[in-house]
């Protein structure tokens, strides 16, 4: 479930877990109480009666085979839904299907039971017991197959097997529109300019360092290695930037005005100390990329945060649109292949969501996709990256927010998939991701702005006092690695 985090997969996995557990309990106690009295199982001369062993073995083997195939089929549906080419889907499916040897071992073990004779159990059960051991051993190996991928890749390289499937290229550009108040730097289009990229081998991108979010050492043009571990101490890396916090902020200032927003010893300090105009950058894990022929249109209620028009590439445009009160502009009706909207949790009330979905559908072409990303407030919880640290004050603030009602803590995000379906979208799918510990390096005090805003604006003096007390304490917790974990929903649907 750590690989496929969708709700449908989790529900199916838990149902299968329950079935397997119930079946195991039944078999376990049936084995114990197969005879009355129990001792007759090992003392045949004892007066009493026992169940028919051959039927017991069949009852054990058949459900075992069925559940093996059910478990084997669970990830295949998720693999087929991956946004990748057929070759990659096939290779991933093959890795999972290697576990089918366990099922075939179970089937063959079942055939050996057909020759079982209760009058000579030690001889006629020997093949079945041997295949029982084989089945268990192959099950352990199959469970470890995904971790053997780096070994398989290296063997393929040694044997000269082509890896062209892993180097597939995008097939066609898409049209994309973004809504909301995301980081405007994502819309500037630097990534759309023609640049040279180098793709790293998969075994490098799957390294523990990459998975842990650690930046690998970078070389300057003189090929001198830079020690990333000590980059925060480099006195040459210095910039003048304004304070992050408002002058009246209840939170302590992060750094002096003539330094970076975050102090050099802070967790968020993940910078690489190279600067210059002639840098060559490899964007590893960039997916299919966004070709420069794609047309981007960003719509928002205000354009105050966007860059000046003169620095935007020709394929990027912005316009003002209030999705709640304004009708869909006529020139945008049926004009987009894909619409992405995100982080509207505190912008829309639940009653606004269906109408917003209908407006966005109106802007899609037939066959176009709507993608909505938001977070589920019901799952917000304080977590830590180190067991010796705490998130008690962050958790207490979230409870205070919860006490203010649904307006301060909207809860409609889990209903998005149903709203999509009710609006007429087809092929609706919801993918759910849980915050990873790396969020501790990304959130810090910026995620505490909402309780700070309440503390400064609320008319409830008792509530304001409590927030003012908790905010500095929660800020200190974030410095030590506390973060708010939350489940993120990505819901997609197709216009029929």
Automatic annotation (TrEMBL):
Transmembrane intervals: 12-33, 61-80, 92-116
GO CC, any one term: membrane
Annotated membrane topology: Multi-pass membrane protein
Transmembrane helix in keyword set: yes
Rhodopsin domain boundaries: 1-153
Cleaved signal peptide residues: none
InterPro entries in UniProt: Rhodopsin_dom_fungi, SAM-dependent_MTases_sf, SAT4-like
Main location: membrane
SUPFAM superfamilies: S-adenosyl-L-methionine-dependent methyltransferases (SSF53335)
Subcellular location as annotated: Membrane
Keywords assigned: Membrane, Transmembrane, Transmembrane helix
Similarity remark: Belongs to the SAT4 family.
Name of the protein in question: Rhodopsin domain-containing protein
């Amino acid at each position: 479930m750590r690989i496929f985090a969708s709700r449908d997969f989790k529900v199916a996995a838990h149902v299968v877990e329950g079935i397997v557990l119930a079946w195991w309990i039944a078999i376990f106690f049936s084995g114990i109480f197969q005879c009355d009295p129990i001792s007759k199982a090992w003392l045949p001369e004892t007066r009493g009666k026992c169940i028919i062993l051959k039927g017991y073995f069949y009852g054990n083997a058949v459900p075992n085979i069925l559940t093996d195939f059910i478990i084997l089929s669970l990830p295949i549906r998720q693999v087929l839904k991956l946004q990748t080419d057929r070759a990659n889907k096939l290779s991933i499916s093959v890795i999972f299907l290697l576990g089918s040897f366990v099922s075939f071992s179970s089937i063959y073990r079942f055939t050996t039971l057909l020759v079982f004779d209760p009058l000579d159990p030690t001889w006629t059960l020997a093949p079945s017991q041997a295949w029982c051991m084989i089945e268990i051993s192959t099950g352990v190996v199959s469970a470890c197959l995904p971790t053997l991928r780096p070994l398989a890749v290296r063997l393929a390289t040694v044997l000269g097997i082509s890896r062209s499937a892993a180097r597939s290229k995008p097939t066609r550009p898409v049209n994309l529109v973004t809504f909301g108040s995301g980081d405007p730097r994502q819309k500037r289009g630097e990534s759309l300019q023609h640049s040279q990229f180098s793709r790293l081998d998969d075994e490098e991108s799957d390294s523990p360092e990459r998975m842990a979010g650690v930046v690998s050492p970078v070389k300057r043009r003189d090929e001198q290695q830079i020690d990333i571990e000590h980059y925060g101490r480099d006195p040459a890396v210095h910039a003048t930037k304004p304070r992050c916090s408002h002058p009246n902020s209840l939170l302590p200032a992060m750094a002096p005005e003539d330094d970076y927003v975050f102090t050099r010893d802070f967790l968020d300090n993940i910078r690489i100390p190279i600067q210059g105009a002639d840098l060559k950058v490899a964007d590893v894990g960039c997916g299919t990329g966004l070709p420069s022929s794609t047309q981007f249109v960003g719509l928002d209620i205000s354009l105050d945060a966007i860059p000046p028009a003169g620095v935007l590439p020709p394929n990027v445009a912005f316009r003002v649109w209030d999705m709640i009160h304004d009708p869909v502009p006529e020139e945008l009706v049926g004009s987009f292949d894909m619409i992405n909207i995100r982080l509207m949790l505190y912008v829309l009330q639940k009653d606004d969501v269906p109408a917003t979905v209908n407006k966005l559908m109106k802007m899609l072409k037939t066959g176009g996709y709507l993608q909505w990303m938001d977070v589920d407030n019901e799952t917000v919880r304080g977590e830590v990256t180190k067991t010796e640290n705490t998130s008690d004050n962050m958790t207490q603030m979230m409870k205070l927010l919860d006490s203010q009602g649904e307006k301060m803590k909207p809860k409609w995000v889990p209903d998005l998939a149903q709203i999509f379906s009710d609006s007429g979208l087809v092929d609706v799918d919801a993918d759910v991701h849980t915050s990873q510990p790396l969020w501790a390096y990304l959130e810090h005090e910026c995620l505490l702005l909402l309780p700070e805003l309440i503390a400064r604006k609320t008319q409830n003096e008792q509530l304001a006092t409590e927030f003012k007390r908790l905010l500095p304490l929660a800020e200190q917790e974030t410095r030590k690695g506390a973060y708010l974990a939350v489940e993120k929903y990505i819901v997609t649907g197709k216009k029929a």
